[in-house]
Design brief:
alpha+beta; Deoxyribonuclease I, Chain A; six-stranded mixed beta sheet; globular
Length: 252
Amino acid sequence: MKIATWNVNGIRARAAQVQEWIAREQPDVLCLQEIKAAPSQLAPELCDLEGYWCYWHGEKGYSGVGLHARKATFPDRPEFSHPPFDLENRVVMAQLPVSGAPLTVASVYVPNGGKDFPGKMRFLEAMEGLAQSFRAAGTPLVVCGDLNVARLEIDVHPKERKPRAIGQLPEERALFERILSQGLIDVARKLYPDNAELFTWWAPWRNLRQRNIGWRIDYILASEALAERARAFESQREFGTSDHAPIVTVFD
């Protein structure tokens, strides 16, 4: 099973790139963030992706997420839902049948915290509660998307490390670890614990992307049993014009 996620930073500006990427990767589950568009604003061929069960959640112009499941992998339409704390079109979840057992995948876009840092922390705390509820129920969970926290020092290029920068603050990182403590594994770091170049976001100046001077703030987090089945992870820095790279994980 291939799970892919991408913060597209405005899907209307990158509609052709999204379609090209989907055709190339053919993910079984596709998560998108920061779509900045309502479904009514999307072209028909994008709004109703061929071969996918589609769910767009983008009425708020500055955020929005999508979650799409491949019909060949999941013949029955998934059950889509939102947690109670999702007030800004930042979370959509799908319950998917996998080998007879339910698997929930969430496409998540955490606020960056620049305008409302307490609000970001409340959102992360709610994510911790969500993960805790799935762990208590014994239901596997995959969290995909732009979580807007560089988890570890290795997740920021040395030239970009700023101890008081939002996204690198100790309190954010501590809360991220609390989310992981609810039975989730950071798949990229499980597979590549020492890779210091796994960045997923680059500031759009001074050729930082071309020089790979960036941050890792996009993730695929998986319940422990599923994370053990992860076989590949890739941050596709070379693709697209969003300030984020698409990331892809393959599970057995």
